[in-house]
Design brief:
The protein has 17 helices and 15 strands. By secondary structure, the chain is α/β, with parallel strands linked by helices. Among the domains are: 93 residues, no CATH class; 51 residues, no CATH class. The strands form five sheets. A five-stranded parallel sheet has the order 5-4-3-10-11, sandwiched between helices. The chain has a four-stranded antiparallel sheet with strand order 6-7-8-9. A hairpin with a 2-residue loop joins β14 and β15. α12 runs antiparallel to α13 and α16 packs antiparallel against α17. Bound molecules: adenosine monophosphate and zinc ion. Zinc ion binds next to α8. The site of zinc ion has 4 residues, from α8.
């Protein structure tokens, strides 16, 4: 029997066995990127971590029994401003940034909807966009107003926080404490300082949609409402797992919970809440002003995506991670070693229990990777690594890719290897060394073994 999955739940602050609402349909939602610009390496962390969880759930419950929704925020202030600056629509802007994001994360070994969805079957992976779910947002907003949890004021619809006594349950900020600590200056249309925006007026020139009933002017959604709408549409009123970065616990996730629970009259929005820790760079907070802001694209210029994925998964997802050159170099060495072991072996072995078990213990990737490191059997290593999204290609295919990426011409290399062999045959060591240096200058390393000479290009 497969081991029991245990997950640390932000809602209970405890690690507990994961019990799906319906084991024949496990449902998971992750808050995805705001696509206004190139994604940074910190944004890659939740994408990679929750991709691993998706893979693990598919393994434990079966590919047909897991649905993953990872949304795309394609309307917000930054998107509106950037599109206006360029004189294009927000759709044109976000289509472009989303396509670039897809290229980036595919290189990081992240499963994509196309990899797992089958024609004619329930989608297993959906990537809903906020602007495609305005109707669902309006339905929830109007439901909240009707239920007395939201009110219309001055072209806005606001969530009435004091109307929900359990507000603050996820972030463990009791409502009465928040009320006591609230500042005095309140936007004039808010009844309570804690109330948050569900819908707001659009400024001139901003994209806008017909507003919920009671507001004549067109407007646009607040941020939090989109995830209540998209998770409802694709996963239902209550679902199993909701994930995102730790910065989202408050206010984003707290507000999502308030909206969904008060609209649908449910006890929970999602049973299990997972949050990844933050990424910093060489010991410092990543920021444009410090000059250590690294996009995924920057990393991929220097390193294969698989190396970046390994560097990311070496740290447990809830810990902060320090993104360093040393970590990447170490990951590159590990992958070279693994490819050396697996060679071109087929991926048909069972996943070793020694690798699966730590993963089911709240995604203990550090320990799972250490177990992979202990495996000497090529087929077992390949199977264990595949589960984590590594070693998807054969060694030969990887070498070919490396050679192509390095721009090395195979015919030239082979002619030089042949010339070196002739020089060595004639015991002309000086000529042989010259050829070897020429190859080295091209990034090609030559190795003489008992089965002849082999060559490789450093990835
Ligand atoms: P954003 O596009 O800023 O909404 O962020 C998209 C996702 O990336 C969210 O789940 C954030 O929590 C996460 N995120 C943003 N910055 C970092 C970081 N430095 N480290 C880890 N996760 C991050
Ligand atoms: Zn969200």
């Amino acid at each position: 029997m497969a081991p029991m999955l245990r997950l640390y739940n932000t809602l209970t602050r405890q690690r507990a066995p994961f019990v799906p609402i319906d084991p024949s349909h496990v449902r998971m939602y992750a808050c995805g990127p705001t696509v206004y610009d190139a994604a940074h390496i910190g944004n890659a962390r939740p994408i990679i971590v929750f991709d691993l969880l998706f893979r693990l759930l598919r393994h434990l419950y079966g590919d047909a029994h897991v649905t993953y929704a990872r949304n795309v925020t394609d309307v917000d202030d930054k998107i509106n401003a950037r599109a206006a600056e360029r004189g294009i629509t927000i759709r044109e802007l976000t289509d472009g940034t989303l396509a670039a994001f897809h290229t980036d994360i595919r290189a990081l070994g992240v499963l994509m909807p196309d990899d797992v969805n089958l024609a004619g079957a329930r989608p297993r992976f959906v990537e809903p966009r906020a602007t495609d779910h305005i109707a669902e947002m309006i339905t929830i907003i109007e439901g909240l107003v009707q239920a007395g949890h939201a009110y219309v004021a001055d072209g806005h619809v606001l969530f009435d926080v004091p109307s929900m006594p359990e507000y603050g349950g996820l972030s463990k900020r009791p409502l009465d404490e928040m009320e006591a600590g609230a500042r005095v200056e309140v936007a004039p249309y808010k009844r309570s300082q804690l109330d948050f925006v569900l819908w707001k007026p659009a400024k001139p020139g901003e994209p806008s949609w017909p507003s919920p009933s009671g507001i004549a002017e067109p407007g646009r959604p607040g941020w939090h409402i989109e995830c209540s709408a998209m998770s409802w549409k694709h996963l239902g009123r209550t679902f199993d797992i909701h994930a995102g970065g730790i910065d989202l616990i408050f206010p984003h996730h707290e507000n999502e919970v308030a909206q969904s629970r008060c609209c649908f009259g449910t006890d929970v929005m999602a049973n299990v809440w997972l949050h990844n820790g933050f990424l910093q760079v060489e010991g410092e907070k990543m920021s444009k002003s410090v000059g250590n802001f690294i996009t995924i694209r920057d990393v991929l210029k220097d390193w294969p995506g698989e190396v970046a994925r390994l560097a990311m998964l070496k740290t447990h997802y809830r810990q902060p991670i320090d993104w360093t050159l040393r970590g990447l170099e170490e990951a590159a060495r590990t992958l070279d070693r693994w490819y050396g072991i697996v060679g071109d072996v087929a991926a048909d072995a069972a996943i070793p229990a020694s690798v699966l078990e730590p993963l089911t213990d709240d995604l203990n990737t550090a320990s799972a990777l250490a177990e992979l490191h202990r495996l000497a059997d090529p087929a077992a290593l390949k199977a264990g690594a595949n589960l984590m999204g590594f070693l998807d290609q054969t060694k030969s295919a990887r070498d070919q890719g490396t050679i192509r990426a390095a721009g090395v011409d195979v015919a030239t290399v082979e002619a030089l290897i042949e010339a070196r062999r002739a020089a060595r045959g004639a015991k002309d060591w000086a000529a042989s060394d010259r050829v070897r240096d020429e190859l080295l200058a091209m990034g090609v390393t030559v190795k003489d073994g008992k089965d002849g000479t082999t060559w490789s290009v450093a990835p």
